[in-house]
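Thread: Modeling a multi-component assembly for a lab meeting

Hi all, long-time lurker, first post. My supervisor asked me to bring a structural picture of a complex we are working on to next week's group meeting, and I have zero experience with this. I have the sequence lines for every component (498 residues in total). Could someone generate the structure of the whole assembly? Inputs are pasted exactly as I received them:
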Amino acid sequence: MLKEERHRVIINEVELHNRILLSDIAEQIGVSMDTIRRDVKELDADKQLKKVHGGAIALGFTNYATENKNIYALEDKIKIATKALSLINTGNTILIHGGTTCLELAKLIPNKLEITCFTTSLAVALELLTKKGVDVFFIGGRLSKDSQISIGANAIHQLLDITFDYSFIGTGYVDINYGLTEFDLESVQVKKAIIKSSKKTVLLSISEKLNSKHRYKTCEINAINTMITELDPDDMLLENFRKQDIRLL
Amino acid sequence: MLKEERHRVIINEVELHNRILLSDIAEQIGVSMDTIRRDVKELDADKQLKKVHGGAIALGFTNYATENKNIYALEDKIKIATKALSLINTGNTILIHGGTTCLELAKLIPNKLEITCFTTSLAVALELLTKKGVDVFFIGGRLSKDSQISIGANAIHQLLDITFDYSFIGTGYVDINYGLTEFDLESVQVKKAIIKSSKKTVLLSISEKLNSKHRYKTCEINAINTMITELDPDDMLLENFRKQDIRLL
DNA sequence: AAAATAATTGCAAAAAACTGCAAAGACAAA
DNA sequence: TTTGTCTTTGCAGTTTTTTGCAATTATTTT
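Re: Modeling a multi-component assembly
Sure thing. I ran the full set together rather than chain by chain. Output:
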């Protein structure tokens, strides 16, 4: 087998599985490990993949990539939170749910903006307490050890007694067909209650989460009134969402 | 499994749960703790997460809220909290109110003690969330800006729906004749509700507060079942209280 | 203060990478 | 076809990296 052919096979495998073991490929193609090692070295130099000890991984699967992604993600989240903030007016009664993007929103709220703000998140509550103008209410309930947010029947019950001008929520996954979905069922139940109690529900989601889904459904995409991503509302990636009855920001 | 793959798994878990235990990850991936420890060390050096004793936490997940800012009389408070802890048994449903002494109690609760614990204090809640065996519930309500505890009708309403085996409260002032008093009316109202909902109410108070009083009354001294100070129950200073129908500890 | 957990260190076995080399193969010019 | 040159490949020996274990030390918990 020619070198070029082997290279093609290797790249194929990497793209298919995101990672390969040199030993697997050597056996599969039927050449020595040394040869494959040299092939992978070349492909690495050509920036076709990243060579690691024992194998190779697809570009974009490296930790450098995730590191950069996270740095950008924070900027994106601030961008999203800034747009969300523009919706809030003096005198509003709002709810801010948990999650890193929602926490950014809480951080961005100006000291003197006079609003009433409910939250289910300990972190958001602590942040809001530093804002002079904000009247802070915590929705009690069982606290999730992981996310430090209120869940359970108690929280839901309280939520349903209140009407929010706006509620700001994140989600684990969004998909145009599957709607908002989560990894965790209890989280879903709380979010359902939030949506029910809100005049307008605003979804804060980085574009990375678009077109992904998981086990438990919070709601259809149309149950959301406004969706905010870090992208421009005219962005190609949002094309499908523009056809829906939601406001993009 | 390639090292890079393990790294990805670890980062994923940290992002999902905010914190991980090395032992959990080691078991999940099926390698020794040493290997995971080395992985986490590298990821920490890469600023992908923060390594802590026994595990790792997501960047930006540190708690300043429960740090001891007020080390005044800390020794005494720990002594009080230790005595209070001795009252709690497996399976109990208790309430821990706010204040530095109550926070000490929360800190002292052993990891594996299995109890259900309610609280009105953000700091106490955050502390309790670190305890494996504790089911944590937060009593929602309006949050006081300075004390970071729930107050208001909402909190009171929730409290009255529950029965606690023990509730642990502090007070601004105690006097044998005037009972428990406070500077703040809303705090009094919440404490009244707590006392009403508790089979046994335990007062945690440093002796310095004895024989002092203020404007708003929570209850008579007899409404308290147990009073804990840093002093020996036989101490002269507690002579008056011994004549009352309260247990001293 | 004692017990339980976790971190560190040094070490050894295993796996992988590197090095130099020689045989095999590719290819152009004679 | 043959020859000479250059590249590719596999092999053997050496070095490096990874990993798990055991003994020690440090930290946390009770």
